[in-house]
Structure formats: structure tokens, C-alpha cells
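Researcher: We plan to redesign the surface later, but first we want a full-length starting point. C-alpha cells attached.
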């Protein structure tokens, strides 16, 4: 008999199927016994009635422990009360793969560290399953968005010779006879080179920050997608970010309602995520903070709390542009109309989720870029190849980076970014 998956039971109503999976839960009321099987695509209730199945099958109920792996044959019955709309009337349990030892994660409440230590098992629970499905959908929508607009995916290297986002958060490693190599903080510099070859590109991969911050928004390893477009300026960059965010959120709303329901997400908040997104300058953001009575000095970067307060003024993501250049990366172009600020944009998610996108128009003038590299005490030799992009046909260009985990956290409505990635890496955790 062909293998069937739980999320396909609708195609087989009234027919016999065979499922393979794990015991999620079981319960019994005398003559009727219920096995809840999960198979990765969903959970289905398998019903056994004494006398209607052989006793040898009925008694398997007693041996199956939580997370035991088995296969079941049965007849698919439509049942509107069932979560997936179908139940299975058991005919046989032809195979038990393994009787699981006592499973440490039970339906009772466990502490977060207990669960995090067992992340390899915790992933099996309904809530984590839902988050991973949404994450998958977000990643697919990211690819679909750029692929559908003529962007070329260009993978950037993970081992790099220099810093991209400041030297304080670099992971280093010995690299044979060549000295130190660094785990990439961002693929941007390589995306810029690729944009000069291909016009519209994106890179998408893991990035690393030796973040000393223990916040609910920081990981040391996270996934970032970074589009880069030749001849785009800051406004074009914001237009792209706006289209992009609307596309991601609307795709998740279209395809992940069951998962968002498991997560008890208030989707009305997500339905607002439509163009146009509000655009304010850093100066306007500072004014919001001062009006709210927060102690804030012009020139500082927005901290987590500042971002929360600013974003709470809006019902959708807000773009804050033109930050003081002093607090931003060396490659950002200064505003010709006010050199104190950079042509930079951060997109802050609503509901206090903070910065999900950071981007800018890039400095395209060779001499200015050289002096920035000096000001930031970066080793010029390591950037010679990057400077070549300004020597050979330099053009205005812009791009941004979207952090996948912060986006997943926001869309799923999670407390902490640690649940947004299968195996999180944080300052105090690199296991399992
Ligand atoms: O603002 P960031 O540092 O920008 C860059 O790296 C640019 N090179 C991107 C570009 O223009 N191509 O990081 C971009 C995004 C942030 O907005 C945030 O979503 C995420 O990456 N991010 C983190 N996510 C989780 N943990 C961390 N430690 C993160 N640091 C940044
Ligand atoms: Mg940033």
C-alpha cells in the first residue's frame, strides 16, 4: 500500500491508507482508544474500538509510549471536529519501529533552559513545528520575490579576510599560512561586486556576529538575505524594502493560517502590512523619543527600547532613514545635502520587534571611501579588491539586509529570537 501523509488524508476519504509516524499522545475511554499520530505534516487521531479490531492490535495501545515510532493502517473518515478534518479508523498496526524510552518533554510546562537543552527533541512539538513551517514559508517567499524580479542569487563566502560591520563582533579562526580569517558578518561587500557584474543580485546565507548582547533579538549565527542593485539610490532601496516586506507577510498570511492559529497570532496586525510604509527621518524619530520623555541625544544610535517606542507609533513597519553617519558603517554614503547623516535606512517592525532591515546607499567615490576606511581603522590592503569597484565603472548603488530570525519572530509573534531557528547559537549557548 502506498505511503500516505496526514496532510493528504483529504484525498483519501473513505479509503484505506497506511501512515508512518510517531505517537504524540494517547488516551482511552474504556472500549475506545485513541492514538494521536504525528508524521511531520500534521497530527491525526487514530481510533480503535474493542471488538472491531483484533485484540492483538487493540493491546498495542498499552505498549506504545510517547514518541514511539510505528505505522498504522486504517480507513479515512471525515470528521469536522477533528483538527485536520479527518480521523483514521484503525484496521491494523503492521509495524512498530521502536518503543521510545521515557520521553523527557511532556505536555506539562517545562522551563526554557530545559527545553533549549533538548532542542533536538523540542522541535517535534506542535508549536515549534508551526514556527519552522512559517520560517520555511518566509524563506521561500524571499527567494520567490527576488527570483520573480530578475535578481540573480550570488552566494557570498563565509570565510572572509576582513570585517564588514565593525571589528567588535568578529569571530576569527586560523587560516593556514595566511593568518586570520573571519566568519562573515554580512555578504554585502561581495554582493556589491556581484551587482557590478549582474545588475540586480541577492545573497542569502548564514552570517555571524560575536555579539556580547544577551537580548531577545540577538543571535551569534543568523540568516540574512541581502539584495544589492546597481543604479539604485536610497529611495529606490526603500521602495524595494517596502514591496519586499508586503510580499513576505502576505505570502505567509495566504499559506500559513493553520500555523499562525497554533501560535495564537493576532493576524489583524499582519494584515496591515501593505504599501506604503511610513518613512520618517532619524531626526523625526528623535523627536518622537523626546516627546515621549525618553532621554535621548542626537547622534546616538537607536537602542532596543528606542526602537520599540518609535515603532509603537505605527501600525505597520516604519522606515527610519538618514542616521548620523558617525554611528553607521564605513561604506554608507553621506547625504550630499547634509554630510552629518548617512543615506541609511533601518526598518523597524511593529509591536516592539525592533530592527528587521538595515540598508543604505553605498559610498561610490574612491577617495571618500578611502578616507572612511582610514577613519574606521580598517586595513586598506584587505579592501583593495572592494576599492576596485570604485576604480572600474563606479555607479550609485544600494541594498539592504533582512534578518530572517527577527522577521520570523515578528510574524509568529514570539517572545524571543531563540525559537525562530532550528538550533540557535547565542553568547551562552552553542549546543545541541
Ligand atoms: O543592520 P545590519 O548589521 O546590516 C548589515 O549587515 C548590512 N551589511 C546589510 C546590507 O546592507 N546588505 O544587519 C541587517 C539585519 C538587521 O536588521 C537584523 O534583522 C539582522 O540583520 N541582525 C541580526 N539578527 C539576529 N541576531 C543578530 N545579532 C543580528 N544582527 C543583525
Ligand atoms: Mg543595523
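Model: Full-length starting sequence:
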Amino acid at each position: 500500500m502506498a505511503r500516505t501523509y496526514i496532510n493528504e488524508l483529504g484525498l483519501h476519504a473513505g479509503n484505506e491508507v497506511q501512515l508512518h509516524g510517531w505517537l504524540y499522545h494517547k488516551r482511552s475511554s474504556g472500549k475506545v482508544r485513541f492514538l494521536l499520530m504525528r508524521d511531520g505534516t500534521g497530527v491525526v487521531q487514530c481510533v480503535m474500538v474493542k471488538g472491531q479490531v483484533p485484540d492483538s492490535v487493540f493491546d498495542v495501545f498499552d505498549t506504545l509510549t510517547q514518541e514511539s515510532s510505528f505505522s498504522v493502517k486504517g480507513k479515512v473518515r471525515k470528521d469536522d471536529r477533528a483538527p485536520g478534518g479527518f480521523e483514521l479508523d484503525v484496521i491494523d498496526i503492521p509495524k512498530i519501529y521502536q518503543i521510545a524510552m521515557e520521553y523527557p518533554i511532556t505536555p506539562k510546562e517545562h522551563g526554557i533552559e530545559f527545553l533549549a537543552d533538548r532542542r533536538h527533541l523540542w522541535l517535534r512539538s506542535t508549536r515549534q513545528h508551526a514556527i519552522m513551517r512559517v520560517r520555511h514559508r518566509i524563506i521561500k517567499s524571499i527567494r520567490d520575490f527576488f527570483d520573480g524580479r530578475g535578481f540573480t542569487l550570488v552566494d557570498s563566502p563565509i570565510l572572509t579576510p576582513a570585517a564588514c560591520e565593525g571589528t567588535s563582533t568578529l569571530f576569527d579562526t586560523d587560516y593556514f599560512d595566511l593568518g586570520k580569517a573571519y566568519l562573515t558578518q554580512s555578504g554585502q561587500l561581495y554582493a556589491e561586486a556581484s551587482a557590478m557584474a549582474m545588475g540586480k543580485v541577492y545573497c542569502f546565507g548564514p552570517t555571524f556576529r560575536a555579539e556580547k548582547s544577551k537580548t531577545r533579538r540577538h543571535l551569534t549565527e543568523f540568516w540574512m538575505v541581502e539584495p544589492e542593485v546597481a543604479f539604485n539610490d536610497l529611495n529606490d532601496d526603500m521602495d524595494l524594502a517596502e514591496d519586499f516586506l508586503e510580499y513576505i507577510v502576505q505570502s505567509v498570511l495566504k499559506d500559513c493560517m493553520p500555523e499562525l492559529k497554533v501560535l495564537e497570532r493576532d493576524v489583524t496586525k499582519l494584515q496591515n502590512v501593505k504599501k506604503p510604509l511610513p518613512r520618517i527621518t532619524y531626526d523625526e524619530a528623535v523627536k518622537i523619543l523626546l516627546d515621549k520623555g525618553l532621554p535621548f541625544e542626537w547622534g546616538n544610535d537607536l537602542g532596543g527600547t528606542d526602537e520599540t517606542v518609535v515603532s509603537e507609533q505605527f501600525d505597520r513597519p516604519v522606515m527610519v532613514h538618514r542616521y548620523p553617519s558617525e554611528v553607521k558603517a564605513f561604506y554608507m554614503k553621506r547625504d550630499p545635502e547634509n554630510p552629518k547623516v548617512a543615506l541609511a535606512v533601518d526598518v523597524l517592525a511593529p509591536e516592539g520587534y525592533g530592527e528587521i532591515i538595515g540598508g543604505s546607499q553605498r559610498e561610490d567615490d574612491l577617495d571618500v571611501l578611502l578616507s572612511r576606511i582610514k577613519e574606521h581603522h580598517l586595513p586598506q590592503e584587505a579592501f583593495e579588491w572592494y576599492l576596485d569597484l570604485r576604480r572600474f565603472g563606479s555607479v550609485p548603488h544600494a541594498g539592504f539586509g533582512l534578518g530572517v530570525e527577527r522577521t520570523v519572530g515578528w510574524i509568529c509573534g514570539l517572545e524571543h529570537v531563540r525559537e525562530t531557528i532550528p538550533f540557535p547559537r547565542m553568547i551562552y549557548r552553542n549546543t545541541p
